[in-house]
Amino acid sequence: MTTSILETQALTKIYRSGDKTLTVLDNVNVTIQPGDTCAIVGPSGSGKTTLLGLCAGLDRASSGSVFLNGVRLDELTEDQRAEVRNQYVGFIFQSFNLMPSLTALENVMVPLELRGEKNVGKRALALLEKVGLAERKNHYPAQLSGGEQQRVSIARAFSNQPKILFADEPTGNLDEETGSHIEKLIFDLNKEASTTLVMVTHDMELAHKTQRIIQIKGGKIVQERLVNESVSARR
Amino acid sequence: MNYSWLLKMAWRDSRKNRSRLLLFMSSIVLGIAALVAINSFGDNMQQEINSEAKKLLGADLVIESRQPFAPSVIDFFDSLGGEKSEEVSFASMVLFPKNGGTRLVQVRAISGDFPYYGEIEATPQTASTSFRQEQRALVDRTLLLQYKATPGDSVKIGNLTFPIEGSVSKVPGESELTMSVAPPVFIPLSYLEATGLLQKGSRINYKIYFKFPENANVDQLLENTIEPRLTAEEVRYDTVSERKREIGETYENLTGFLNLVAFVALLLGCIGVASSVHIYIKEKVASVAILRCLGGKGNQGLGIYLIQIAAMGLIGSLLGTLLGVLVQFMLPELFSGFLPVDVTITLSWRAIAQGVLVGVIISLLFALLPLLAIRKISPLTALRASFTHEHQSRDYIRMVVIGLIILFVAGFSFLQLEEPEDALFFTGGILLAFLILTGISGLMIWLIRRYFPVGWSYIWRQSLSNLYRPNNQTLVLVITIGLGTALITTLFFVQNLLLEKVALTGRDNQPNMVLFDIQSEQKEAIADITRDFDLPVMQEVPIVTMRLEAIKGKSVNQIKEDTTSHISRWVLNREYRVTYRDSLIDSETLVEGKWQGKVQSPQDSIFISLEDDIAESMGVGIGDQVTFNVQGAIMDTYVGSTRKIDWQRVQTNFLVLFPEGVLERAPKFHVLITRVDSAQVAADYQQAVVQQFPNVSIIDLNLILKTLNDIVSKISFVIRFMAFFSIVTGIVVLIGSVIISKYQRIQESVLLRTIGASRKQILSINALEYFFLGSLAALTGVFIALLGSWGLARFNFETPFSPSFLPILISYLAITLMTIVIGLSNTRSIVNNPPLEVLRKDT
């Protein structure tokens, strides 16, 4: 058993199409301690999002293991992994991924309701207040701007008080100004809740706001370094 | 599982989709409506039959015989107490002296106060009793209308002319339909003898109607007193409970059949539901994936949409039920010709509950097919919209659902048809039709892709490729519209087939008029009249009536008592109408043995020829002895040959054929067969014959055709009415599919508009696409109809099938045009508004 919040061991993901195989992740080992903030960077197609998906238990690896808060994900069924996500994980997506038929408030309430918690409206509203959208609680995603949608998405990500937050290009679909507001919000809330943050991004400036940067290329970690520290290359 | 949360989520998610969800469910509304209407009407009918049972018989008990009751039997009937009426009925010609019109009718000579329950509905109403006092007749209302006669005119029946006392429109227990086949003419029994129509050889029915005191147990009386006394007599009984059962069964069969037609409409609707839900769920993939990312389980996602669909199924079923309740008010009028009772419409809770239950179950089962895919949606889809599973394993639950659907269809049809074979046949037929439609649509898609006309213009290529692109509507529209077309067209073909079959018999100089009940002394004179009218005497056939006495030396009574005997009662009890001649005729083919056309001396054995089926029913073969009772004279014969008979001709055919030299001196009557080409000559000829020989009855093939046409038209109107629900369901599914596909096509059409496609180009692409779809569906439907009708013609009606192509062309054009119009109505909003406005409004 490990004390880290996230650990991958020889994680490999291979896609097969007929006789052809495509190795998207190749023997990746990552360990992240509770409270760490970490950015995964790399060019398009390097395997960043695949790594994020596997770490969050959204998919199964071809080989290797993922331990999330001490739970070995590859031994679990899809429904058991869903339960783990609900207990420990928060998500922020590039395209916001709010449920279009639910209002802003209802979107924030869903993770809590999935846990079977009662009277979650107040807590969800408090989170919306934190992201400055309490007044728009009854608006549907289509009635909100991109930045507002991402703020709702952040409120939702923190609603179940996750131990680890996975963010996939959280500012990728936003203009610079809105993007920097969202960055600030994520880091502020993360700090307040002492949540571990794992973020996939192209934006090196954003990556440098985390404590640690993992660079991926061709499915392998090619560089791993602490921000403001010297580079440690891995091959 | 937290069901209250699932309910809450289903409610929340439905808020922006309710109109679309309702649109899905509108497909089942008509099917449920038809089902509820028919079931409810059937229940009302059964209730009516139960409460009006005595009126259906008009008495407590009816005893019927083909022979006059012996005086001792009459004495026995008198000893039973209560009231009784007598009726003697037979087919005979009547003549309206006013205009010389003649017609074969059912003469019903009655005495006493029959009917004891219900009434003979007459105009004026007093006529139903007053005609009994004097030499007067009560004539079928339609007959009077046809021959432009009115009360006060007269009708000649046999030798007597009866003033017409009134018209009769309803007789207890008889429907308009039965009355149109044999229009009744009532006369007082006391005048029957004087008509001269009671002759040897005529087919006469003798009936006694009984009315017993209120507290009498008729069934017990029948069992304990009447049956033991009448075992030796060839009589038939009909009691109120028996009549109730018979009529109930008949109408149960009718409503069962119509229920299946309604069920087909429901099945079509369900395919529409499945198709709509399939597209709906595709749009929900992202939401389900997000839910899964947030920790939702596969079954929770399924549960949310299952609840929505179940709720909509319930609403659709309730709407359908409401519509069905309204529709059933139209049914008494629709069925008026068939019903022996007036049906009062009340709400049938059983039918309503069944409608709602069937609607919810079947729509859920069909919706489950696409819904089950929700369980397999990966949370990874939230990260990558293009993510698909690498290996989709076989989904056994899906197989179970398909199995449940087939079981449900088979179970439902079994409940309606009550015969496992029929239910299997129906289910198999539906499956086969679905498979043909699916196969043809799949083949079409494959052919288009395989031989795609790359050299065609963009508009043609684009419209053709719309038939196989993702989320295409090809399969569902071909199935729904195709099956609806198949139903209606089959109905049309079968109706024509029936009429054609009868009409065929009178074509190409085949006989088309039969004169029967001709007495020996009248034979020459009638032949002379026939020749005077320049008509051919095509056949003159003597007929001798006889009964079976023994088979292979064992008497009929011994056979009846022998419980191991498989010989049917009808073979033993029936009256055999036999002819004699020296040769076989062209409708007969020898199957076995040798035909011996003449018996040279009275000492020689008599070798008869039997129709092959009756020989089998009697259990006899070549050389076996069959003994007949020829009106008192016992006659031993031997089976010399068996024949196959082509019954489909207007001529006399006989189950039993005697050689010449045996029956010449037996009491007999004759049949003359001729052909009349002109309707006027036919009327004049019949008038001349009936005026001189009122006892002679005439069957005119043209009259049969007309009557048959009336009956078939009435029946097919009812079936068309029911099939209409299928067609409209097909249209609703089409409209639904078009609207749903709007959400998918809108982006593309707007994109085309944005990059400069003209209004005309977009309209042309859509018009061509719906032309292809409509054409394919209509042609496939017609193909199935042709196949089905050919099968019916070949194996059921045993008649050649030569469909007329004009109706095929009309239905093809109508359906294709309708598909194009509905399809284009969807495109109008896209082409008539600026692209940005459309995008803002519709997405």
What does this protein look like?
The complex is a heterodimer of chains A (235) and B (843). Chain A is α/β, with parallel strands linked by helices. Chain A has one domain: P-loop containing nucleotide triphosphate hydrolases (Rossmann fold), CATH 3.40.50. Chain A contains seven helices and eleven strands. Chain A has helices at 48-55, 78-88, 104-114, 121-130, 146-159, 176-193, 204-207, and strands spanning 6-17, 20-32, 37-41, 63-68, 71-72, 89-92, 164-168, 196-200, 212-217, 220-226, 232-233. In chain A, the strands form two sheets. Chain A has a seven-stranded mixed β-sheet with strand order 6-7-8-3-9-10-11. In chain A, strands 2-1-4-5 form a four-stranded antiparallel β-sheet, with helices on one face. In chain B, 41% of the residues are buried. Chain B is an alpha+beta fold and 843 residues long. Chain B is built from 26 helices and 21 strands. Helix content of chain B is 55%, strand content 17%. The longest helix of chain B has 54 residues, at 240-293. The chains are: A alpha/beta (235), B alpha+beta (843). At the A-B interface, helix 1, helix 2 and helix 3 of A face helix 1, helix 10 and helix 11 of B.
Features:
heterodimer; A: 235 residues; alpha/beta; Rossmann fold; four-stranded antiparallel β-sheet; 7 helices; 11 strands; B: 843 residues; alpha+beta; six-stranded mixed beta barrel; 17% strand; elongated
In short:
The complex is a heterodimer of chains A (235) and B (843). Chain A has 235 residues and is an alpha/beta fold. Chain A is 32% helix and 29% strand.
